Amino acid sequence: MITFDISQWRAWAPGLQTPAEWQAWAQGSLCPAVDGPSPDVSFLPALQRRRLSHLARMAFAVGWPLAEGREALPLVFVSRHGETPRTFAMLCELAEKQPLSPTQFSLSVHNAVIGLWSILRGETSEMTALAAAGDGFEHGVLEAAALLAEGAPAVLLIVTEELPAEAYRPWIDDVPFGYAVGLLLTPGEQWRLAAQPSSSAQATELPHALSWLHAMLTGQDFFTHSWMRRAWNWQRQP
């Protein structure tokens, strides 16, 4: 079992940006759009913004405000599918025997987002990019908790998924809409997370990061996320 505090959070999805909008979503009175424009990252210079994909813009939109005023902030970035639209576009170019852009290729790798984060923020702290299964959110929390145990005063966790290309949607069914969730984890006892084997685990209706956000906003103090043979028990202390 691990314990930690979540001192701040931010989330973004098409039509859901403010805490009030996410609260309305949790209460069932507001739904996100399936697709929509990229989030506002006007805090970056225009030349730097042009290099960011939609996935990277979502990650920066939720992570940048949480990192403001903090130096030496480790980052854990989690995405199960990564830059799927970008890589699909490159595969289409290959099929048409078109030359690939070296820039597009370099930005399609899974750790490209944390590389851009390091460059644009001048951040040299430890950074990790994870591509786990449906419970990648919990694996990201474990990684962040390990960094806290090693002495980090705070760790930034960003979980994001982009709506996949149409050709992939029969096989990628765990991204109802593009989203990003950012959490600032600090040492404490506010949250407890424990994993246990489970032979009858049932997947949650929402991706785990969004399911956690929904539970948090609706005041649930205990809930379980299951994936394959693992059950993750979340508990919030009063």
Question: TL;DR of this structure?
Answer:
Helices cover 32% and strands 24% of the residues. The protein is α/β, with parallel strands linked by helices and 238 residues long.
Folded structure, characterized:
The protein has 238 residues and is an alpha/beta fold. The chain has helices at residues 19-26, 46-49, 54-67, 84-95, 102-106, 112-121, 136-149, 208-217; strands at residues 2-12, 75-78, 127-130, 155-161, 179-197, 222-227, 230-236. Strands 1, 2, 3, 4, 5, 6 and 7 form a seven-stranded mixed β-sheet that branches. Strand 6 and strand 7 (230-236) form a beta hairpin. The longest helix is centred in the N-terminal third of the chain and has 14 residues, at 54-67. It starts with a strand and ends with a strand. The model has no long low-confidence stretch (mean pLDDT 89).
What is the string of SSEs from the N terminus onward? EHHHEHHHEHEEHEE
Largest sheet: 7 strands, mixed
Calculate the terminal CA-CA distance, rounded to whole Å. 18 Å
- Assigned CATH class: Alpha Beta
What is the CATH superfamily label?
Thiolase/Chalcone synthase
Shape: globular
- Work out the strand percent: 15-25%
Q: Please give the count of helices.
A: 8
Instruction: Please state the CA-atom Rg, rounded to the nearest Å.
Output: 18 Å
Number of strands: 7
Q: Mind sketching the topology for me?
A:
Elements: E1 2-12, H1 19-26, H2 46-49, H3 54-67, E2 75-78, H4 84-95, H5 102-106, H6 112-121, E3 127-130, H7 136-149, E4 155-161, E5 179-197, H8 208-217, E6 222-227, E7 230-236
Parallel strand pairs: 2-3, 2-4
Antiparallel strand pairs: 1-5, 4-5, 5-7, 6-7
Helix pairs in contact: 1-8
